[in-house]
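Backbone shape codes
____________________
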Amino acid sequence: MDKNIKSTNIVWHQGKITYEDRCRVLKQKGLVLWFTGLSGSGKSTIAVEVEKKLNQLGKAVYRLDGDNIRYRLNSNLGFSEEDRNENIRRIAEVSALFKDAGIITLACFISPFREMRELARKKVGSDSFIEIYVKADVETCAKRDPKGLYGKALKGEIEEFTGVSSPYEEPENPEIVLDTTKLTIDECSNKVVEYIEKKLY
């Protein structure tokens, strides 16, 4: 029994429909595409394009975005290491449920620590988990600074900011690397879609 589980007297209720049944109806496998990288690297922008292209191909796809999730599901979490880990733990659980439903899920989270990304892979299942490293150096991301966060972090207005005052651990063996200092958004999204099509068939 997980020591972190505080609920008592609970029993998992098994249904009559399996993962394979759901995949057969949707005519696809459940997958989780985990986009990781620094703020401003292009994770969400690429995922939006991938979502659109997969939808146009007739795939059941849903995007989980870092900021969007923090608006509601994880609105009670801050940015300490403990809270960041809990943020990823919850998203990993949600992603695993989406995968079990047969959905192609695009999870866009900085997720700076390898340990938590590996936890997500374990929760989802390695065969259905695709780690996508959206690569861009801090200097490039700071120049882009689409949300104005790097400017605030450099002034000390934001604590525990990844890449400035908090570390980012690069993936060691990601399935896909998208270097957004060299590739366009369209090139990046096409690369992901091509990989998924091969993975599905």
The chain has a mean pLDDT of 89. The chain has eight helices and five strands.
